[in-house]
Amino acid sequence: MNLPAAASWRHQDARSGFEVAFFQGHEGGWRISGATTAVEDGASWFVEYAITVDAAWRTRRAEISGRSVTGIRRTVLDADGDGRWRVDGVPDPRLDGCFDVDLESSSMTNTLPVHRLGLALGAASEAPAAYVRAGDLAVERLEQRYRRTGDLDFAYTAPVFDFSCVLNYDEHLLVTDYPGIAVRLS
Fold this sequence. Notes:
The chain is mostly beta strands. It has one domain. It is built from one helix and 17 strands. Strand 13 (145-148) and strand 14 form a beta hairpin. It is globular and about 45 Å long. InterPro entries: Glycolipid-bd_prot_put. Pfam families: Glycolipid_bind.
């Protein structure tokens, strides 16, 4: 499936801000670079990312940098495609079995598991992810679940946050409406 050259989202409700992502074919997969800026709970931050996914939409590398009032940070995640990860060069067994990176700062990263899973209508799957926090770039495991409820709609659940919603996507399987988080602008 082809992706547009770029997409953008406006944060809403949970925070105020903006995200822009650029998509480029890369060795049979994709290289996605972008940035997001926001004010959340009175704190300002920005996050820049470059994510590489292989032809099966498994995250292979994520280079993330950010800045907040607490300082400038950078972290690099490398995945072997079989569910094992290194964070800044160090193996992180907490992430074993994850195939996606999910950036707290990004709505775009919700496209990664939807493409990778290729769920049929009514089908569901667990999709644990290497989750990167916006403010300090801390990395943790995030248990999440996707269920395809319509042609372009997926029920999404993240139990640790006691959060669930229906995510709406476009024909490229990019999020168009992430209730309480962001709406797609272009």
